[in-house]
Amino acid sequence: MARTAPRPDLITADEAAALLHLHVKRVQLLAREGKLPAVRHGRRWLFSRERLVEGRPGREAAQPSSDQRSIDISARNQLRGKIRSVVSDGLMAEVTISILPQELVAVITRNSAERLGLVRGVEAVAVVKSTEIMIARRRG
User: Fold this and answer.
1) How much is the pLDDT for 130?
2) What is the DSSP string of 38-88?
3) What is the pLDDT of residues 51-95, one digit of tens each?
4) Does residue 8 have a cis peptide bond before it, meaning omega lies within 30 degrees of 0?
5) Integer Cα distance of 56 and 123 in angstroms
6) Burial class (CB in 10 A: 0-12, 13-18, 19+), 47
7) pLDDT of residue 8
8) Regarding the domain delimited by 77-128, which CATH topology (the fold level of the hierarchy) does it fall under?
9) CA pseudo-torsion sign 68, 74, 79, 81
10) Domains of the chain, residue spans
């Protein structure tokens, strides 16, 4: 039986994850659900680089409204707000999100802040995932 040569535009799940800026497990899940064009080869998923790039919106493409965008994440504590400030220093960035009537401050990598396009006035979601959350209340 003759072997067929692999298609040059087929890439692995790891390569697809890097291309799409997603975790490899997320890429595999999307492939299983039929949400990403992929073929199963034995135990591996293979993706057409061309089809993935075609389906990926460009940075200049119009962004959908906040009602049309969704975030699939297991964490339940999601706080929506607007970026008040981003202060970068070296490898890190301090991001302040206004979640009225309060503010939340997070320190993330500078690269992540730039990749997410975090600038003053942009809407963002702070996701709190912790093994311990304390709740306090003033009495009388």
Assistant:
1) 76
2) EEEETTEEEEEHHHHHHHSPPTTSPPPPTTT-----S--EEEEEEEEEEEE
3) 887 776 544 444 444 544 555 677 778 888 999 999 999 999 999
4) no
5) 21
6) buried
7) 65
8) OB fold (Dihydrolipoamide Acetyltransferase, E2P) (2.40.50)
9) negative
10) 10-55, 77-128
